[in-house]
Amino acid sequence: MEFHIKDPGLAEKGRLRIEWAAMDMPVLARIREEFARERPLSGIRIGACLHVTTETANLALTLKAGGASVALCASNPLSTQDDVAAALVAEGIPVFAIRGEDRETYYAHIKAVLDTRPHLTMDDGADLISTLHAERPEQAAEVLAGTEETTTGVIRLRAMARDGALRYPVIAVNDALTKHLFDNRYGTGQSTIDGILRATNRLLAGSIFVVAGYGWCGRGLALRARGMGARVIVTEVDPLKALEAVMDGFEVMPMEEAAERGDFFCTVTGDLAVIRKEHFLRMKDGAIVANSGHFNVELDLEGLREISERVRRIRDHVEEYTLKNGRRIYVLAEGRLVNLAAAEGHPSAVMDMSFANQALCCAWLVKHASELEKKVYPVPEEIDRRVAEMKLNAMGIRIDRLTPEQEKYLSSWEMGT
């Protein structure tokens, strides 16, 4: 397949939306100008499995400006923006993604990207790299290196490295400070609330909002829910994160207790079966349940079906499960990423930093991949700091610099009080 999208006729609408997003992505725009001059990716084929959004489109165009041949598929069946896919195809970038595609088509699209024989892989959730390793191990030897965008994918890749299964080095872009401190916290916080409100049009003020997981995404979501007037409960398995949530002013308790109290529930853990049958059975009539972790496994939907006597679609992105006890549970976006399935994903301003890291890491890997072992690496500190500096410059913000005396003091042990 040269490409597989819903409708090439949507290209003009997509082009305008990509342009709108670009207005709030000044760091990536500067990198694109630099790439166009220096062409650091000339001759490099990049296979990307990412959410096909306006922000991703600007990343793909930046990589193309750097000389790369880019092929793109979706990292989630419900996150594709079909007009954006059409616009990228019109720009000569093969895209294999259709919003709402079934599982078979989803993996056929991943294999179509692998058919382009990429030198670099770019993942959001590690489905591309896991498919490559499981089904085409001989092809993995052709890959120089890869990058991974999200927490779930990094967890999977570290497990592969630990088991000796990883066949090439991968940079965990998710772990860059300019990614997870901003994208995960402010991006997930805002976009998840946006998705829940678009799907339900319910009032958050005065409600009880249960956040499962207090990593950076959970912190952002709890913060934004409280900002909308909700009373927030946090559930955790990590005592340090639970303690932090308490110190941040949130109630903390097991999901078993929270299930009886919550009006809204949202999982952001990266693990499976966080909300299970026993929790659904305790929920009040009308409880709204969503997920903003990468995969829909965070909600035990099979278990929910087992205890339900009827399931119906009551409005866009809302499925009503009527339990055998008569109570109704409302699941948003089929349990998939609610911020992308029911809304548009993270704001462009935070994806600007995330995708700046992606682009610069690709150029860095072209130069240094041969020096690396087959394991997961952090984003080089110089890239992380450069992205932060570029973002501050774009915002018109200046900061202090250390004086020579201060630098000497910080690097010495002789000087005391």
TrEMBL record:
Its EC number is 3.13.2.1. It is found in: Cytoplasm. One of its GO terms (molecular function) is adenosylhomocysteinase activity. Pfam families: AdoHcyase (PF05221), AdoHcyase_NAD (PF00670). Binds 1 NAD(+) per subunit. The keyword Secreted does not apply. Signal peptide: none annotated. Keywords: Cytoplasm, Hydrolase, NAD, One-carbon metabolism. Its cofactor is NAD(+). Substrate binds at residues 53, 124, 149, 179, 183. NAD(+) binds at residues 150-152, 184, 213-220, 236, 292-294, 339, 346. GO terms for cellular component: cytosol. Residues 184-345 form the S-adenosyl-L-homocysteine hydrolase NAD binding domain. It catalyses: S-adenosyl-L-homocysteine + H2O = L-homocysteine + adenosine. Pathway: Amino-acid biosynthesis; L-homocysteine biosynthesis; L-homocysteine from S-adenosyl-L-homocysteine: step 1/1. Its main location: cytoplasm. One of its GO terms (biological process) is one-carbon metabolic process. Belongs to the adenosylhomocysteinase family. May play a key role in the regulation of the intracellular concentration of adenosylhomocysteine. This is Adenosylhomocysteinase. It comes from Thermosulfurimonas marina. The lineage of its organism: Bacteria, Pseudomonadati, Thermodesulfobacteriota, Thermodesulfobacteria, Thermodesulfobacteriales.
